[in-house]
Predict the structure.
Amino acid sequence: FMVDHALLFDRATGKFIRTIGKVGQGPGELLSPCNVGIQNDSIVYISSTYTYALFAHKITGEFIKKIPLEPNIAYPNMNFIDDYIIHYPGSATGDGTYANAYVQDWDGNVIQESVHRFPGKFTKSLRLEAPSTWTYKGIHNVFSCATDTVYAVTKDSIYPRYYIPEGKYKREILDCATNVTKDFYENAIRMGTFIETKEHLLFSFCLGPNIWDCHYNKSDSNISLWKYTRDDFKAKKGQFSGLINDIDGCSYSKPFLSYIDDRDIVIYITPDNADEIKKIVTGSTNVKFPEKRQQLLELIDSLGPDDNPILAIYKLKD
């Protein structure tokens, strides 16, 4: 039988822990979508914290199938292409095997893989940062922390493009069984985002109290960099207010807005941010499709406290 809520108790002491909703979540917990992809403007692919798989849906919301991911990673970075998927697990198992990039078809079969091995003896998975990925002129790229190398990933091959050594500030490779302090993270490079142009790679990383912006010259491998403090970054971040949306009035910035590809973005509307987004939508004056705004408001009003997020997907203008 179905009940609206159940109660969770500690098995040893019988102490009450929390209430569980009918979808198996506690208050404020979500089976959050981690990646969203679109194929031919008709199929939406969603990965979530729920399981090691992709869920394929028609654009109308009808479920199609579940696609397994290899290796079993709950929420890697992904690129969605017409007849295959690239995902970047960025994880290493207890034997030191680092899963850098995988190419799979829509049935879950592995077509290409890039795997490296960290030397040493480990008992648990390793402490690693999520991989940095980007796309330039249709080529998907990933920076591997195992080899300090930028790899291009295609359906036919995975090959090295550029070498960017982290040098003496490279993080020590330790497993999760090893206790670490704050210095383990602060005193080593934590690579950030990459942007590529015809002549340069532009990227950032954190080291100590500072954030560094870098220019990598493709022609001679020369790296120019400059730093600024976290306070400078916070001040700069406060200047941005998000995207202006004249379709239905929904305008929101990080962390609820996510990039899908060079054509599409998605906004996650959750029980926690629904009221704030509803206020933004209702107050928007530059709306070209009031019927779409009304449809969005009705969806927001229907969102229950235990429901998973609404995914509002938008196609960017040329």
